[in-house]
Design brief:
There is one protein chain. The protein is an alpha/beta fold and 343 residues long. It folds into 2 domains: 3-163, 3-Layer(aba) Sandwich (Rossmann fold), CATH 3.40.50.300; 207-342, Zinc Finger, Delta Prime, domain 3 (Up-down Bundle). It has 15 helices and 5 strands. It has helices at residues 10-22, 39-51, 65-72, 90-100, 122-133, 153-157, 169-180, 184-193, 198-206, 209-222, 228-239, 257-275, 289-296, 301-319, 324-342, and strands spanning 28-32, 78-81, 110-114, 139-145, 160-163. It has a 5-stranded parallel beta sheet, with helices on one face. It is elongated and about 70 Å long. The N and C termini lie far apart (54 Å).
């Protein structure tokens, strides 16, 4: 993966190119931003460029021995540290410290990527801080985190921060159509719902998200016509989606109740958008635009706002490990009431 192959993130790539051109490489970087927007691929591209034997305009050639080793995953000086369970632990940082005592095998730069750096225990963070205070030459640490506020200020101050931004919808849509053969309308939906995260959009393609999303939205559309008993049955069906592993907090991602609620929130957000006169280009569920227009005019703005707040509260309740069945019963009945009173 070279810099030229990374979608978007022009500011981050330009900054790193300038740093390499000056040949004054910081010993530690902090890559911040939501998952799936290119932080890992940029760390790989940086490693390739720094160790490439025949660089081209500051980018890796892709053909030399070092580049081929990186592509095959066999480059000895590219190390990864991931959480063991929920946290990066002190024994992992101590092991890293021992490895840093040896010179890079390739004779160039050793790059160490700390995934989800905010998950470090306090002991691990303090141990890493000692490394950052006296970094061995020839080693570059790349800490990946969503927010710098989740890390010790002393760690942040010793790293060169490189912010990564959510990818533009149009760029993601074009890429998904050209590279993955996704239908243009669905590609636009994925680009919007993923929040500008290409990694998440790709995982949505790999999972059955597209079909599940249709099912989840159809439930909402039918909700106003259901009796109270049928609405409670629907709540129980929703509760069975109870898988709380989400892309936001893990390197893995599977469909579950939190994802369903997120889709529901986009639905009410789109209804509110249409109700106040927003354009189709701002919609997330663009493939449901006709139904959204037909429904939105019948609902009150305040009830749509209340619906969004209800879903947001349900997500918070689930994160606190509240009773899933009760949470969904309350959410579904509340949403049904808002729709009925809005007519």
């Amino acid at each position: 993966m070279s810099f030229s192959q990374i979608l978007g993130q022009e500011r981050a790539k330009s900054f790193l190119a300038q740093v390499m051109a000056r040949e004054k490489i910081p010993h530690a970087y902090l890559f911040t931003g939501i998952p799936g927007i290119g932080k890992t691929t940029t760390a790989v591209a940086l490693t390739m460029a720094l160790n490439c034997q025949k660089p081209v305009n500051g980018d890796a050639c892709g053909h030399c021995v070092s580049c081929r080793q990186m592509k095959s995953g066999n480059f000895p000086d590219f190390l990864s540290i991931r959480p063991e369970g929920k946290n990066i632990k002190i024994n992992q940082i101590r092991d890293l410290n021992r490895k840093l005592g040896f010179a890079p095998v390739s004779g160039g730069y050793r790059v160490i990527v700390l995934y989800q750096a905010e998950t470090m225990t306090s002991e691990a963070a303090n141990s890493l801080l000692k490394i950052l205070e006296e970094p061995p030459s020839g080693n570059i640490l790349v800490l990946k985190a969503t927010e710098p506020l989740d890390l010790l200020p002393t760690i942040v101050s010793r790293c060169q921060r490189v912010p990564f931004q959510p990818l533009p919808v149009d760029d993601m849509t074009y890429w998904l159509v050209k590279q993955k053969g996704v239908d243009a309308e669905m590609a636009a939906v994925l680009a919007r719902i993923s929040g500008g995260s290409l990694g998440r959009a790709l995982k949505m393609c790999e999972n059955d998200f597209i079909d599940k999303r249709q099912e989840w939205l159809q439930r909402l559309i039918k909700l106003p016509g259901l009796s109270r008993e049928k609405a409670l049955e629907m709540a129980l069906e929703c509760a069975r989606e109870d898988k709380k592993t989400g892309f936001q907090t893990s390197e893995t991602w599977e469909l579950g109740l939190m994802e369903m609620l997120e889709v529901w929130e986009t639905w009410y957000r789109d209804l509110l958008l249409v109700r106040v006169g927003g354009g189709k280009h701002l919609m997330m569920n663009v493939d449901f635009s006709h139904k959204l227009k037909n429904i939105a005019g019948k609902l009150k703005v305040q009830n749509l706002i209340n619906s969004i707040l209800t879903i947001d509260q349900s997500q918070r309740d689930l994160r606190r490990m509240r009773n899933t069945k009760l949470v969904m019963e309350h959410a579904v009945l509340s949403l049904k009431g808002f729709v009925e009173h809005g007519r």
